[in-house]
Amino acid sequence: MKRASTEPDLPARSVAPMSSIFGQSSDPPKSSFLTVPSSGTTNTSQPGQTSNIFGNLGGSATTSQPPQTNNLFGSLGTSKAEGTKTGGDLGSIFANLQPNNQGASNPFANTASTSAPTLGATATTTAPFGASLFSNTANTSAPAGSSLFASQQPQQQGQATQPQQNNGGLRTSTSQPAYFNSLLEKGKKRAHDTNGASSFAELPSLQLGLGDIARRARELHGTGQLAGRGGSTDSRAHYLLAASGVKPGASRRDLESLGSQTLPGSSQPHISEWDPDTSKYINHMQQQSTLKMIEEGIQRAHRNFDLFLEQNVDINWDLQRKKIYEHFGLAKASAGLEESFRSNLGANTGSFGRSARRGRGAESSRPGQDSLRRTIFGASSLQKSVIGSPSAQSGNATLFADVADKSTSPPSAQNDRFTRDKQAKYAEKVQRLNQARLQELPYPIMQGFLNVESERLGDSPGQLIDAYKALIEITGEKRDPGTFKDPDVPRERQFADDYLDEAPNSAKAINVRKRILDGSRRCLERAFFEQLESIVAKNPKEANIGGVPTTINKVRAYIRILEARKELTTDSVELQRLGDDYCWAFIFFLLRCGLVKEAADYVTSNSSSFRSLDRNFITYITSYASNPDRRLPRQIQDRITAEYQQRSRIAPENSLDPYRMACYKVIGRCELGKMRLDSVGQGIEDWIWLQFSLAREVNRVEESAGEVHGLEEVRETIREIGQRYFSKGSEGMGSYGTYFFLQILGGMFEQAVAYLYTYAYVAAVHFAIALDFYGLLRVADFSVSDNELLTHNTKDLPQISFGRMLGYYTRDFRASNAEAAVDYLTLICLNADLPGAMGKSQASLCHEALRELVLETREFAQLLGDIQGDGRRLKGSIEQRLKLIRIADQEDFLKTVTLQAASVADDSGRTTDAVLLYHLAEDYDNVIIIINRALSEAIAVDIGETGVRLQPLKPRQELPNHQQPAANSSLSLTSVDDPAILAHNMISLYNSNALYYQKIRPANRETCGILLRMDDAKAKVANGQWSEAIDVISSLNLLPLHASGSIPTIRAMATSFNALSPPVSRNVGPLLLWTITCIGKQREMLQNGTQYENQTRKAMSEEMMVAAKDLMVFAGLVKYRLGERVWAAVTGAGGEVGVY
After folding, report:
1. Hey, which bits of 154-257 come out as E strands?
2. By C-alpha distance, which of 1084, 1088, 1075, 1080 is closest to 1115?
3. Phi then psi for 73, rounded to 5 degrees?
C-alpha cells in the first residue's frame, strides 16, 4: 500500500546526526515510537545495507543522511497477508547508525555510496524465516540466517534490488541456497588473530555467540585505544551508550578496577621485609596492637549499641512526630498513627526502631526487662500513654479529638490562680474519699464537690451547683452518712448493675430510669420551694405571712406576692376562691413544690366545699397522693381524662380557672401531646418540671401508646433543645451550664460530661468521678476508644473514656503533687468490678497509669516507699492503696510496678533510683551489681580530677532549717551523691541482716569489698599517705608486691588477671600506677629521711625496688589489657622510680 508524502524534500546536512537507541535522532517530523510516520524516506543508493550496533565507530566524516524513523521490532509486526508497510525506513532498534558516505573502511561497517534521498517512496519488505530480531529490513529483504548485527551485503545484491526500490513496486524474497551455503562455510573457517587485527569483521557472520560478542568487544576496545593515541574517534558510540543509560567513562573505570581488586576472603597479609632493627619491630608491634585494640573497642561499642537497640528501643518515629505536631497545635489529635503502630507491633514482628529478635545473655534475664522492652521512651505496654505526655500548659480540652473539634474557646490556663485553688480543693476531697474507702466508711463525695463549687472560684455557672443537687436527689446521698449500717446510705458502685443493663425493657433498666425521673423531679420541686422562700423572705410586707411560718403559710404568702404584682394570672381570667385562698392556685403551687401530701390534706380538710366545686377531685388527689409512683388506677385515670377533655371543649373562653386545668393535667397526665400549661405563667424551670412531672416509666408492652411518655421522650426533647439553642450556629447560644443541667436531669450523664469538658474540664472530671463512684457512668474500653472522649458501643449506648480523662487531668499537677495524682489514678479501678474482660482491662489500665506516673515523676521514695537508716521499710503512697487498686499481695505489686521502674532507672543511669527500687523489690543482688558498677567508674577517675557524683534521690520529706536527720528518720538511705558512701551504706545494711546477705551472690559481695578498699587506697594516695596506701593495695592481693623477683609467681598473678570481674579489672591499671608512684615516693622518703645511711632503710629501699621491677614485668605481661594511656603512664612512672 502506498501513501503520498505531503512534505517537501529536505536539504542535505553536512553534519552526521546523533544516533539514538530507538533509531536515528533527527529534526521534525518525528514519529511515535511504535507507529509508522505518514511520510517515509528510503535510501535508494544503499540497497541491502544493514547497520549494526558497532557500525562506523572509526569512520571519517560523512555526508548528510535524511531523518529516518525506526521501529523497535523492525518489520516483524507486519501482516503476513500484505507483506508491506508504509513509508519510512523502519529499521531495527540499532538501525540507521551508518552514514551515507564513509571515507574509511571499518571492520564492522559497510562501504556505501552517496546518494540523494528520495521522498515519498514506498518500500516493500518481507521478513523471511530466520531473520534477525534487530536486522535492517527497511530497504531490502533480509536473507535467511542473517546476523544479529546484520553485516554488509555484496554490492551486486544491492544493485540487483535497486530498480525494484526505485519503482516502488512489490518485491518478493527469493531463496539463494548457494550463496548462504558459502557464507556458512566461510563462517566456520574464519581465522582469529591474537593481536586484534583479524579478518573476522570482514566476513558476513551468522548469529554470534557470547564468546564472539566478548571477543569483538575486546577488539573494539583495542581499536579505541589506538584511535585515542593516534587517530580521531567518532563520538556517536558515546551518544549511543549515553542514550541507553550507560556511562562509558564510569563503566571503563569500573572494568579497569576489577583487575586490581581481589576477593574479600582472598586478601593476603602484607609481609614486610626483615629488618634487623629490634626497636622498629617493637614499635611496629605496639602500633599494631594499639590499632587492633581500638578497632576491637569500636566494634564492641557497635555491638553493644545494636544490642541495646534490639532489646530496649520500641519507638515509632512517625507516631512521635505526630505527637509533637499535636502537642504544639500543628495538627489535630488523631489516633490513626497509634492504631497503625499498635497493629505493626507483635510478638515476632519487627518494626522500625525495634528488632524482632530478643535479648541474649544475662541482660535479657534481668527482672522487669520484658516489661521494659514495651515501655521505654514513654510507649507503654498498652502502646498508648494513659496519662499523656507532661506539659507546662494544661490544654486538657484539646487532647481529645472530638472535644477539640467542638471547642469554641480555649480552656482556662493552668496558671490561673482560681483554677489552681479549685484543683487543690478538689484534690483534698478525692484524698478524703480514698481514705474513707480504705476504712470502709461512707463518704458524701457529691456533697464535698458541691461545697467546692459553692465557693464559686472562677467563672463557673451556678447550674453546676444545681446539677450536684440533682445527683444528690437521684442517688439519695446524705450529708452526714454515718456508717453503712444505715440501709438508706448509698454504697460505692451501688447502681452500676442496674445502670449498665443494656436491655431497655428489663426490670433493672426501668428501676434506674424511675430513680432518675423521681430524683430530677424532686430536685426541681425543692429548687422552686427554695426560690419561693427567698421571695417571701425578701418581701415580708406583701407576703403578710403572720403566725407560724409553716410550708403551707409560705405558699399562701407567695400567692399574695404574685397577686400584688399582678403575676398570678391575666386580668381577664377570674380565679375561684375558697375562703381567703385561691384554692386551685394554692393546690397547684403545693404540687409544684412537691407538697403532694399537704395538697391532699388541704382538699380533704375542705371536702365539703370541694364537693360543691368539684365532687370528683377529692378522689383524684387522694389516689394520686397515696400512690408512690404517682399513678392513678385505670378507672380513675379514664374518668379524669374524659372530664378534662370535656371541660376543655365545652367551657367558654376565660370561664375556667387555669390553675384548675393545670391541676387536672398534672394529676391525671391529660393531653400528653401538649406539654405546656395555658394561662399559667411559666419559666424555663416550670416547663422542665412539667416534663418530668408528666413522665412515667412503665413497661411499654403493657401500656397503650397514648399513655407512654417516659424518660426517653424527655431525653429526646432535651436533645432537640441542645441542637437548637446550645450548638454551634444555633438560633441563640445560651449558657453551657443550662444545657448541662438539663442533661443531668435527663440522665444523659455521658453526654453531659463530654459537653461540659469542652468548657470546664476541671468540673467535668469531678462530675465523672462522682457519677462513676455510684456506678452511673458507662466507661469505654481503653484499647478501642481511640482518642475520643465520648464514644458509643455496639448497641449505640454512650460511653466515656474515663481512664484517659483522669490521666490527662493529672498533667496539671502531678509534677508538683504526685500523691494527689495517685489518688486520681486509683479511681480508675472503680470500674474493675465490671464483668468479664472489661473489669480486668480497667484494672490493668490503672496499674499502667500508676507505672507511668512513677517513671515520669521519679518520686520513688514518696510513691513506692523508702528505707530508714536501720533498713526498715516505709510504705509509699501506691502501696498504701493496694486495696483500692485491686492488687492482691505485695509480691504482685512489686512485679507490676517496682521492677519495671527499677529497670528503666538503671538503663537511664539513675543509680540511686535504681538502688532504692531494686531494694524495695527485694532484688538485693542487683543492688550490689549497680553499686559495683558505679563505684568502679568513680575509682577509674584520675587523681586530681573531679570525681563522679550521683544524682541524689528525692527524699520522702524535707527537713526544715537544714536539720540533720535522725537515725531512724524517713529520709532515704540512698539520698547521697558519693558512690563510695552509697556502697558503704548498702553493704553495711546487707551484712547486718542474714535475710539480705543470703540473697546476694558471693562474687558480687567480694567485688564490692575489693572496690571499697581500692577507693580507700586511692584516697590515701591522694592525701600522700604512701606507706598506708601500699599496705591497703598489698592486702588486695591483685599485684605481685611480694613476688621477690619470682617470674612464675608474676606469671601466675598475670594469669589470674583474666579471672577478675570487670569492675575490678578495669581499675587494675590505675592501681598499678598508684603503687609504682607510692613506691617511688616512699623510697625517696627513705633516702632523704636522715643523713646517715641505715641498713634497714637500705634493705627496705631495695625491697621496694624489687617490687617495682616485678610490677613492671607484670605490667608488660598484661599491657594489652591496660590500654595505651595507662601503659604509657606506668612506663613513665617506672622510669622515674629508676626501674630502668
Report:
1. none
2. 1075
3. -110, 25
